[in-house]
Write a structure and sequence with these properties.
globular; 13 strands; binds thymidine-5'-diphosphate; alpha/beta; 347 residues; two-stranded parallel ribbon; binds nicotinamide-adenine-dinucleotide; 12 helices; Rossmann fold
Length: 347
């Protein structure tokens, strides 16, 4: 049974200029009445162009700030009278965490602690931690991750996300601070930064560049179209039981090489572009989510099949060649200066 519905009035969305965050903000503006305050440091992964369609909306505001700055978090929550937080800001790319893990701990662990403390101090009533299935580690050919699967992270990225989840859970148990944790499988869709597998492969295919598949290409991910993730997040925030964890998954397991072949078919390019390259160190073999809890408690299910979602995604990147070009050239980082003047550091 879910708790009584909770309707936030002013929701702070951290990381709202990133991939999932910006899709979530569009969802919130289109499908709910909540006032949305986006907080983002605009790292390489944050892009205000992702939020341009809602920039003038009366229920939307943007704050340029860094979650590593606790005093600033308190100030923002007080100034905007925030009553709920959806925390998506993170360093999110596994490969970057292998070459530079420290910032993953600073942002994902200490940043989350800052937000928890600021939220508790300012009387926030719901704190949604947007987590990843990667905290559970790697599966063999069978089985799925459930909410009770022990955490066994393998990359600096997933280790930092697991540490953050533990802190969130500790705030519930220690202070009865009303937290919720989601753990979602791999997302894909509009506005995803082209360092992640699906947009990277689409971009390379469009330019007739090699598609670099790690190892034997038989690693399995459970893909979820980002819009379905957004509806799940809103469901958990408003109807989830405080103190609970909810897995979110697409029920769409595919090997990487299957995904890449399908992208080539959709873009209309030959399979000879597939290039097998050295494997990622510590590369998790398989992720698969058991999402039966969110289905039975909140009635959430994915609505977009992988074939439909991938076709939509390829079409979106085709129709937004300017967006992709700005990212690849780094031009998007000038967007902030045009909108707000000098970019500068967020803290
Ligand atoms: P992303 O990298 O596209 O976006 C992250 C956003 O956080 C960016 O806008 C960036 O500027 C911002 N940010 C980074 N450091 C910050 C800081 N110190 N202060 C303020 N803002 C900062 O990531 P994403 O793919 O949209 O993922 C969002 C969240 O969802 C992350 O917490 C991630 O762990 C989680 N998640 C992602 C996936 C996925 O498949 N992408 C799956 C499950 C969970
Ligand atoms: P990625 O999008 O980085 O997500 P995650 O590592 O968080 O699951 O990668 C998805 C899968 O694709 C993963 O098994 C690694 C693989 N991959 C490649 O084969 N080549 C690439 O260039 C990238 C970025 C990923």
């Amino acid at each position: 049974m879910s708790a009584d519905s909770y309707q936030p009035k002013r929701l702070l969305v951290t990381g709202g200029a990133g991939f999932i965050g910006s899709n979530f903000v569009h969802y919130l503006i289109e499908s709910t009445d909540v006032e949305v305050v986006v907080l983002d440091a605009l790292t390489y992964a944050g892009n205000l162009a992702n939020l341009a369609p809602v920039a003038e909306h009366p229920r939307y505001a943007f704050v340029h700030a860094d979650i590593r700055d606790k005093a600033k978090m308190i100030e923002v929550m007080r100034t905007h009278r925030i009553d709920a937080v959806a925390h998506l800001a993170a360093e999110s790319h596994v490969d970057r965490s292998i070459t530079g893990p420290a910032v993953f701990v600073e942002t994902n662990v200490l940043g989350t602690l800052n937000l928890l403390q600021a939220a508790r101090e300012t009387g926030v009533q719901r704190f949604l931690q947007v987590g990843t299935d990667e905290v559970y580690g790697s599966l063999g050919p069978t089985g799925r991750f459930s909410e009770t699967t022990p955490l066994d992270p393998h990359s600096p990225y997933s280790a930092s996300k697991a540490a953050a989840d533990h802190l969130v859970s500790a705030f519930w148990h220690t202070y009865e601070f009303p937290t919720l944790i989601t753990r979602c499988s791999n997302n894909y869709g509009p506005y995803q930064f082209p360092e992640k597998m699906i947009p990277l492969m689409i971009n390379n295919a469009r330019q007739d560049k090699p598609l670099p598949v790690y190892g034997d290409g038989l690693n399995v991910r459970d893909w979820l179209y980002v819009h379905d993730h957004c509806s799940a997040l809103w469901g958990v925030l408003t109807r989830g039981r405080p103190g609970s964890v909810y897995n979110i998954g697409g029920d769409s397991e595919r090997t990487n090489v299957e995904v890449v072949r399908e992208i080539l078919r959709l873009v209309g390019k030959p399979e000879r572009l597939i290039t097998f390259v050295a494997d990622r160190p510590g590369h998790d073999r398989r992720y698969a989510i058991d999402a039966s809890k969110i289905a039975s408690e909140l009635g959430w299910r994915p609505t977009v099949t992988f074939e439909e979602g991938l076709a939509r995604t390829v079409a979106w990147y085709r129709d937004h060649a300017d967006w992709l070009e700005q990212i690849v050239s780094g031009e998007y980082q000038k967007y902030y200066e045009q909108m707000y003047g000098q970019r500068g550091a967020a803290r």
